[in-house]
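Hey, I'm writing a tutorial for new members on how sequence and structure tokens pair up, and I'd like a real worked example in the thread rather than a made-up one. If someone can provide the structure for the chain below, I'll link this post from the tutorial.
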Amino acid sequence: MIQQSAKSSSKFFALLIGVDCYLPNTLPQGGSYKSLAGCVRDINHVESFLKNTLQVSPAHILKLTASNSDSPNIPQEPPEQLPTYENIVAKFKQLTDLAQPQDQVYIHYSGHGGRSTTIYPELKGSYGVDESLVPTDIGNSEARYLRDLELAKLLQNMVDKELVVTLVLDSCHSGGATRGEVNDSNIRGLNKNIIDTTPRPTESLVASTEELIQNWQELTQGKQNTRNVTTASGWLPEPKGYVLLAACRDNESAYEYPFNGKENNGALTYWLLDSLQKLGSDCTLKVLHDRILAKINSQFQRQTPMLQGEGDRLIFGGKSTNSQSAVLVKKVDVAKNQVLLQTGEAQGLRKGAEFAIYQLGITNFSQTSGRVALAKVVEVRAEESWAEITKILREKPGNNLRLYIPPSKAGNSTQQTLSEGIIEDGASAILLSPSVKLVRKVRLLPPLENQQLPKGIDYKEALTAIKAVKENVEGNGWVEFLSSDQPSDEPVTYQVSVNTEGEYEILDAGGELINLRPPLKVDERNATASVVNRLVHLSKYQATLQLDNNDPISSIVGKLKVDICLPGENRGELLPLNAPGNVPTFDVDEYAILRIRNESNQVLNITVLAIQADWSISQLHPEGAAAFEPLDPGREKLIRIHTSLSEGYNESADVLKVFATVGATNFRCLELPALDKSRKGTQVFRANNPLEELLAAVASEQPPNRNVSAAAYPSDKWTTEQVKLVVKQA
């Protein structure tokens, strides 16, 4: 957990803005800002985190929300609490007045992002566009956007007062056509990339037009193009004196999704809070962003969170300490194999969260030998939750506590449920990393309305055939098809449909087409089996991408530093390219350097996997038969990379995933051939330690469980970092 340092003299202030309810607004081009479902929930969860984890005073948290109600288009909140333009500007100014130099200021906006015809043509030109936050009452033509120039000025006022500012924008500007479970109402921006041309008041409550333009010009000074100067996030010039975490690039979508199977959350906010809980505050914003990027990209291909500004700054300005906070075990129910934990929705807890439970009296949670069981939350209440025991790590026959040996190594031992005395009331539990999802839910989609299929192709028959052939495909245990008449508490991962060319297509959870080659014609021989095989391959590929260990007590989490570099002008100089918010781009046949640094106080064994756009995974380093290369404390390893493209690709996005372990571990079981190539023989592997048991489960053709807990294997301390790069045909 993260707690404010008692020695810190600075205070923490926050402004939280969430907009679900948007009044009716049909724009001249036919677009509209549809009401959302997860923005206010985002804000409530952030508020709970600030109050309960950071111990921020409620008096220091300013909040504006517009919640949906039973009455159409009427928010639940009274007018003075609504995020209108006037109220938003007033709260920004109030926050600036309250905070004093060196105080920390956190601003979080969840809602629609919008684009409108500029009201600053002298700066941006007659056809320029203003990027904006969208107030709840924008349906009224007299209502105003909070435009980019105004937001820049409000932030600059804070910087000028020497406040430590972090801005999070969980919104976007435009959404494309989407399919299936994610529709227009799940995207935080105008549909069809529409620009609002509605004439609106131009008078600003922030500052005069002259002041706004002057501030913008000073911020963009030295830029070649000052007419529409924004960074890749699409919002503001490169931040000076503050940090901006934006949900996506300006040509992408910011998604809402039911991560817990029932209620929507913004993808950025969900993974931000999850990462803060796992990483603590003893890491940089860049490390935080890297984890968020990896988590979101594994589910939504067209959402790339952007970090701009002081990426090397510690989370929340470095004025907090990493203090591991335990959760009390209030009650043990042996009959139900469950424990009652003193934590719930108010602490931002989600169903499915995992805990390690310690022997009564243990206070040093770095002693992993003190763990007696693992538990998974199955019921979340306001301030307490029931968790089911998933693994017994130690058992207690009589009065002697001894190590519990799992069934795989203990012959006839089968105990995985509670017995009296294993866990005691008053014991402590520590929140661990989320599990790695092995089994993936798949939805079969009908074609879009009015979509014409080739003559002779019946989509119902084509989709039914996929289900029928599933059991005959090796590895089919990785895939479960959703039944149209059975509700599921697990969100869909992939979607399958038939396109106008008579081809099967696979889409991600956001409805974006996954680029799989070659295409599969519905009437091709074995096409249905190939679809299932591709789904299995994708599931295994994504499981490796998802593999992560942020066990909060690990001694090496955050101690592995990874950069992609090019040589500098001076001899021996290396220039990192993967700065916050930047994905390095290379032409084919270029060289770069992967730099890996061990900042821990012990020797780490390093392995690098290349996760490539042809859906293959291979060990990049070390080459040959070696499983890893030792790296001494404080030393770095430089690996030369040569860029290339797979046959048939003009562009690819590849990931280099670096593993560091204290013990000897083999990661070759995670290797995969290219898509549609036989996976047989690639997973022949014997696990020699607990971490390798986890890897074997991820690599298995028939997963032993629905999910596996990365944090359940602490005997081999390990961590991982990954960097993404794009290769293009020159």
